[in-house]
Amino acid sequence: MSLFGANHALIIVDVQNDFLPGGALGVAGGSAVIAPINRLAAQPFGVVVASQDWHPADHCSFGAQGGPWPSHCVAGSHGAALASSLDQRSIGHILRKGMHQKCDSYSAFFDNDHIHSTGLDGLLRNLKIDHLVITGLALDYCVAHTARDARKLGFDVSIVMDATRAIAQDITMVCTELSNLGVHLLQKKTVISSEDSKR
């Protein structure tokens, strides 16, 4: 199954310093997603889009405001920046999310209340994209929410499993759910040609 072409988009979800090991909300093994994402981004996608958590300092998801997470990805901070080792030359658009103080935003499409949109859906429609290849952090939160919304919006969706990592150690439940929604769970070696892999 080819995942490249003008109607395919690579979505890079929240590969930011605070979600890497040593960050405020570091995902174990999170740095390992960067090399496969960089390799994927060099492929002929119609567009490459990256999302960024971009929170106000008093965001509702932070522990100080009664939320479940430590303070992370505060707008303009080092923790909110995309990882320096992420090759940004192929990224055509960066969309920020979680900017509303009273609502969190896991999906790259919408805030969790599904009232505020990031504009990703409109961008993809204008570019005549119909298949999304999703990567990034973390599989069981922002990647999964992005994939769920993409399926609800009618996109064909693949997640490249070696280009994502989860917070939970056991990902069986989330993988089963995503598969049942029609999300393709793939390994990078199945979506990059063997000829390219030998380069």
Automatic annotation (TrEMBL):
Keywords: Hydrolase, Metal-binding, Pyridine nucleotide biosynthesis. Pathway: Cofactor biosynthesis; nicotinate biosynthesis; nicotinate from nicotinamide: step 1/1. Its EC number is 3.5.1.19. It is an enzyme of class 3 (hydrolase). Gene3D superfamilies: Isochorismatase-like. Signal peptide: none annotated. CDD domains: nicotinamidase. The keyword Metal-binding applies. The keyword Transcription does not apply. Transmembrane segments: none annotated. GO terms for biological process: pyridine nucleotide biosynthetic process. GO terms for molecular function: metal ion binding; nicotinamidase activity. Belongs to the isochorismatase family. This is nicotinamidase.
